[in-house]
Design a protein that fits this description.
Rossmann fold, 5-stranded mixed beta sheet, 18 helices, two-stranded antiparallel ribbon
Amino acid sequence: MKLLAVTACPTGIAHTYIAAEKLKKTAADLGITIKVETRGSIGVENEITPEEIMEADGVIIAADKDVEKERFRGKRVLECSVADAIHKTESLIKRFQDGEVPVYKDKTEKADTAIPAEGKELKQESKVKRYLYRDLMNGVSFMIPFVVIGGLLIAISIGLGGVPTDKGFVIPEHSLWKTINDIGTVGFQFMVPILAGFIAMSIADRPGLAPGMIGGYIAANGSFYGSAAGAGFIGGIVAGFIAGYIAKGLKALKAPKMIQPIMPILVIPLLTSLAVSLIFIYIIGAPISALMEALTHFLNTMQGASKIVLALILGAMITFDMGGPINKVAFLFGAAMIGQGNPYIMGPIATAICIPPLGMGLATLLNKRKYYPEEQEAGKAALAMGLVGITEGAIPFASRDPLRVIPSIMAGGMVGSVISMLGHVGDSVPHGGPIVMLFSAIHNIPMFIIGIIAGVLVTAFMVNALKKPVSDQQ
């Protein structure tokens, strides 16, 4: 049997490649030939050719963002999340061996009805939950570079060109650093339109891109609907989904043959842009803006116990699924708050992000008797991944022993997050781990380091206390 696979996670950094390796290893163990195309942050690698598609017995598409499927028409195609490709690899491949995967057909063709009960259940479950998440994460993946560039440039300009005053650091006018700061501000201004545009594009393809971006721009500029502040990232998400589904609805309409060629490039974008803009300006813009102002004000004024509760929630979410959907929700919240001028939500998140891989890496060094040789090797890789803020470095450990590993990394993440929150740690870029300190993006570096160390120690000692020696596990 020859299989093909495509892996693609929203950020394209770790899950994409972890899933690819897991698919290759499991297929080799089962005596199956497989080629995996990865769609990471640097683009398509190991691209599948038309000849390979012709020879293949089936295709696994493990993706949490939109992946073009038409080239696989006529082949048995199994769609799943990246997490399933990592944690349920063998069962996915065995479905091809058991003939339980339906043939993918064009929308105009009659659908393959020979879908087993398990497949129907997967399809129904994913239709709303997985597709909404995919569309949202498609927008987030394109938005993040703009936030990173904007945050880094602003942080560098303040760190190197700021002059201390009684009101904080001020950048002198007409200086190079003021110009760099202005460029960084432009990066932030693109954040919401890009988020909305690529959410809409994920739903409706290219006809949704321009309306989504226009709707996102209006969402970010409260002057359109008489608000002092824009509707922020929440407005951008709403605008993206409205634009996407309006455009998708218009695409489904049967148009006269005379205007069919201009439907995707003129008619659909024009009508959708008008619709989403008018809806936002006259109906939902002001209420969402008021909600964003209230949320930002609430976060900026949080004190004492309420800050601790927020830090506990963020630390738990970031570490629970190590780069999965729950992690991404917390991460998006922190990234969006940077755009709202509040980097002190991303600070605790940046601390928690690196604790799972660093904690598990340290645990393997402290007590090798409790880890298999391959886990000890994974521990070395996890340490490296933790230093650059890649939470997914802990996945191999959580996959093998979730009941002991996940509570341990969550405990460490929550401890580190609380320390950073109470220490008023801020992060001007949507990333975490010690590497962020190199870019002058961290406010209150000492407390950031203390938070990481405390969380790592909690994770390492807790997981080693819970785990048994390898001989006992066997």
